Amino acid sequence: MIAAIFNSTNATHFVYGVSANAVAVLLYGSNYVPVKRIEMGDGMFFHWVSCSAMWLVSLVGDLMLQSPKFYPLAMLGGALWATGNVVAVPILKAIGFGLGVVIWACSSLLMGWATSRFEWFGVAAPHGSRPVLNHCGAALCLLSLLILFFVKTNSQLHPPPECTPLLFDRRTNSGSYGPTSPEFWMDSIGPKSRRFIGCLLAVVSGLLYGSSFVPILYIKSHSSCHDSMFHGASVYDLDYVYAQCSGIFLTSTVYFGIYCAARNNRPRVYSRAILPGLLSGLMWTLATYSWFLANNYLSAVNTFPIVSAGYGLVAALWGLLVFREFKDFANCLAFCLGSSLLITGALLTIF
User: Fold this and answer.
1) Residue 23: which H helix or E strand, with range?
2) Rounded Cα–Cα distance for residues 197 and 95 (Å)
3) Rounded distance, CA 101 to CA 15, Å?
4) C-alpha span between 95 and 101 (Å, rounded)
5) 8 CB-near residues (< 8 Å, 6+ apart)
6) Average pLDDT, the chain
7) From 105, 121, 153, 249, which residue has the greatest number of CB atoms within 10 Å?
8) What does the pLDDT look like over 281-298, one tens digit per residue?
9) Closest CA to 267 of 111, 90, 9, 43
């Protein structure tokens, strides 16, 4: 009887974990969809708006969780995430929605795997029982990344002519209105250079995304050490979302302030990006809560590869089926092959 209850409880926890994982995958993979058809310029204003929404949603979540202890170290993870996300718009403009998200999902997964496997940054994580399969999975993810580098997309870089910033002075030195410099710095470079820069930025962003949860793992792994300043810290992942989002909001505000100063207080502020930016931030925060909730029922070693590859797959479907971002059959085939290798590699890294 006890065994039956235990098995029933385990099955219930498994269902809860898988369901929360599925929600996280769908929201992470779709959180940039609201801004796909919206002109965002250089993306700095959109970045700040979405990060503000993340902080507001996490504040509500923190109050619902009765304000658990705040650890400033978790803000470092938010700073890393905000740094990687600040170039999200240039990435999407350079190489497209599907390819950009899949590349940073792949590099994020590799960063998370390396951190866990080699115990970087003092993070101790359980190792799988089949290291050969684990390493094969990482190798497939790396191969996927190399294949995706050669995929060409139909990403639309130039904005429609009627889209103009809300706060941008188009007057020339003579005081009249006339032609201005390109709206976006990528306008001035060629397609090959643009694609290379977009892929490179996606890899760097993914590495930062994959590192952004390390501070939380560090706090949790040292919660049982009596000589650690984090002794007695909560092992419930949801208790750290507010601290991380606070780091995201603070860092994004600093970056936006630097951006405004660099542009002589003439930032490109696109009014049509406000509501989509708020929606994007809401979706990301809910996805993070769902993922962290899944970690409570399933091991983070299992959920991280699934979430990383899963939201890459969702974004790939958006780019492939909805936005039609791929030029021809060969590029479409290469993209599908790279995405399939990513999914297979992610599943193998669980072992």
Assistant:
1) helix 2-30
2) 9
3) 27
4) 10
5) none
6) 86
7) 105
8) 999 999 999 999 998 888
9) 43
Which positions ≥6 away from 89 have C-beta within 8 Å? 35, 40, 41, 42, 43, 46, 47
**Residue recorded with tokens 């599907």:** 98
Q: Kindly report the backbone phi and psi dihedral angles of residue 180, in degrees, each rounded to the nearest multiple of 5, phi listed first.
A: -120, 175
* Cα–Cα distance measured from residue 330 to residue 111, given in angstroms and rounded to the nearest whole number: 29
Q: Is the pLDDT of residue 12 over 80?
A: yes
Phi, psi of 326 (to 5 degrees): -110, 135
CB-based contact 350:117 (threshold 8 Å)? no
Q: Which residues of 287-326 are buried (b: 16+ CB within 10 A; e: fewer)?
A: bbbbbbbbbbbbebbbbbbbbbbbbbbbbbebbbeebebb
Burial class (CB in 10 A: 0-12, 13-18, 19+), 170: exposed
Phi, psi of 307 (to 5 degrees): -65, -45
Whether the Cβ atoms of residue 293 and residue 4 lie closer than 8 Å to each other: no
What's the Cα-to-Cα distance from 184 to each of 38, 159, 160, rounded to whole Å? 14, 9, 13
Closest C-alpha among 281, 110, 72 to residue 202: 110
More confident residue, 219 or 131: 219
User: Which of the 8 DSSP states describes residue 69?
Assistant: P
Residues 154-175: tens digit of each pLDDT: 764 444 444 445 555 444 444 4
pLDDT single digits (tens) 196-238 = 999 999 999 999 999 999 999 899 988 888 888 999 999 999 9
Using only C-alpha atoms, what is the Rg of the chain?
21
